[in-house]
Give the backbone structure.
Amino acid sequence: MTEGKSVLFVCLGNICRSPLAEAVFAHMVKERKLEGKITRIDSAGTGGYHIGEEPDDRSVAICRKHGVPINSTCRQLETVDFHEFDVIVGMDNQNMSNMERVRPKGSKAKVALFGSYGDGKVIQDPYYGGASGFEKTYQQCVAYSEGLLADLGFPNDTPKDGNKL
């Protein structure tokens, strides 16, 4: 039996973008009944600013608005993550640079910009902005999660009208 895939979402503080991405991706995995194929989903920050805290209230609110459960505790990226996760995605170019700086040689993780699974754009940090920034972040997470799932071999087989193919 093959071991399931594992995905880690990374931003600066692990309080806004990465827990939101983790929640959206986990929700899609559950909705598509892929829990046995994608067995570990987590998030982390490159900085240790919010270790042990819950996600930003605005990330929680946007997830609730869209019916997506969110339940994570902020943690910092560790070198062992590069050996334990199959895919590690960063939200922006600074996150990517920070991850590459601490990435150990010979690690197994594929490291990619989350936006590379969609339109190639970065997910801007909504922390200092209003609710509209969190909505945009949510929408990007949905689109990029679709692309990531397809890259992992699990494309969406449900057309836009909602009927199964």
Observations:
- Residues 131-151 form the longest helix (21 residues).
- The chain is about 35% helix and 15% strand.
- The radius of gyration is 15 Å.
